[in-house]
Amino acid sequence: MSSPSHIDMHQEHKRWRVEDDLWRDELAVWERETDRAIKDVPRLEKALRDHAGMLRQHAASIRLYEQEFAYHEHALASYEQGEAPSELIELAHAHQTEAKKHAEQYKAHEHVKKHQHDLMAKWRLLLTALVDAGASD
User: Fold this and answer.
1) Which domain, by its residues, includes 119?
2) pTM for the model
């Protein structure tokens, strides 16, 4: 194995200098990107709080739907006990309306579920990437 000549070492140093320049340029870009990301943290928090509010609103709509459903179920039970014999047609019409509401509630819930799963999967990826990056430094 032979030792590199002084010319070879000189040329290798030049290549290293070019790489060092590139690394410094990349780091400057990454620092600016990270600074912008840090400034976005309040927007991220607001988006998460808005999402939590949307979840609370969806839960409230489910509770309201359940109350309407319970009222109709009670009316059906009254009919079956002979307490309201003339209301069967009204109950049938109300049931059709409830079926539409249920389908809408189902669709809304599936939309919320997909959004929640997508958001949390991306959140876990981001958090894991940040925590793992910090742990490896």
Assistant:
1) 40-136
2) 0.72
